[in-house]
Amino acid sequence: MIQWSFIGGTSEVTGSRHLLDTGEAKLLFDCGLYQGTRKEADEFNASLGFDPADVDEMVLSHAHIDHCGNIPSMTRKGWRGPIHMTKATGDLVPIMLRDSARIQEADAAYLNQKTSRRGLPQVQPLYTTKDAEAAIPLIQTHHYYQPVPLAGGVELIHVDAGHVLGAGLASLDIPRSGGRPPLRVALAFDLGRYNLPLLNDPVQIEDPDILIVESTYGNRLHAPAANARADLRDAILPPLERGGKALIPCFAFERTQEILFHLAALRDAGELPRVPVYVDSPMAAAITQVFEHNHAYLDPDTRDLQEKHGQVITRDWITFTESIDESKAITASGHPAIVLAASGMCENGRIRHHLKHGIENPRNRIILVGYQAINTLGRRLQNDEKQVYIFGDLFQVKAEVMSLHAFSAHADKLELFRYIRKAHAKHIFLVHGEQESREALAQMLKTNLHSDHVYLPNNGDVVDFEALVS
Hints:
Elements: E1 3-8, E2 17-21, E3 26-31, H1 38-46, E4 57-59, H2 65-68, H3 71-76, E5 83-86, H4 87-118, H5 129-135, E6 139-142, E7 148-149, E8 155-160, E9 168-174, E10 183-188, E11 210-214, H6 228-241, E12 245-249, H7 255-268, E13 277-279, H8 282-292, H9 300-309, E14 318-320, H10 324-332, E15 337-341, H11 351-358, E16 365-368, H12 377-382, E17 387-390, E18 393-396, E19 400-403, H13 413-423, E20 427-431, H14 435-449, E21 454-455, E22 461-464, H15 465-469
Parallel strand pairs: 3-4, 4-5, 5-6, 10-11, 11-20, 12-15, 12-16, 13-14, 13-15, 16-19, 20-21
Antiparallel strand pairs: 1-2, 1-22, 2-3, 7-8, 8-9, 9-10, 17-18
């Protein structure tokens, strides 16, 4: 028996969770937070979909919160197994989990101010800083291409996903009975693009029996990555010229560092005015330092720049804010500025305060540079809604909203097709994508690869992989 449970992150792009049962051991792959409406997110995240006590070991693909953010819910329930990941991911996860725990606690405290006035029961955080701290000693790090023995005789090898710093595609060899060769399963929950700044290209895994691969942009093409810098410049200049702010909701991990890389190049070339540039996210500041200290995970061009010029994304004209008072001073200022703040989907973090104070100012521009999941504030802005709720209050959207499409760290439909075609997998499972996107990619694969072995699992589905390939 080799059973795979698709617990979360199938027909949506958040809440990635997968469970392998070999008959000898149970291995968890990712334990991410679902992001969406508060009611849906609270319900999904409170129910892990499995009993942590049954899990022997965990493997983490990368440090994005939709892949690692619910690990503290496991430690809250007493789980203390090892969590395998790359070395760079191991440097990032403590930052991500501590920040997520603070957000859980702060959101609960904010909501309790309202519930107490209404005489309603107190809201409990999903988990606490104590739960996040309990997860950190469980981290075990490995290098790319290093064979890692797991429970049940499974062997794991991570290779570069090209998605974010330290992200790993996983190749699993799972023992089978009767002297048969191991079942090979390849995991590409998040697959990167080619020719992105800072990062290496994704490494091709070939000839797996089963490939489980994302489909986030299975129905869309990105603008060329080479356009990103010029697109960013053209988006930033107009609000600055009219005395406003360029407000950039940014994932603290990866997208912030990529934007800083481009801002530095634009400023060096004299293509941006010397206005203040703020990174209003203590987590983004900490992650930026992880980039500066993990040169081995960066692409050769970036390493060459670092050797010649030192730090390439931490310049002296960038202000990394720490305190709440510093953040408030930025929102209160009427001077033109470039403000990067988390979160990238506008669901949490300091960007919501900047939007609260700046969304009704027509001189400002909100620049969306990442995927906006359905039911998030970022998606509502992207959909050109004229009224939005922030912290429970209704605001008129008078600032311009612009989406840039050259910045995605996810492969588009042609890049996905290229990777899947070269993998030569016998069976392909499409996950991590909204249903329309998954269906479009599935049809593309069936038509062009002449394959009937393309599947669209749903959350809760359990598939016997051994029976599938026998």
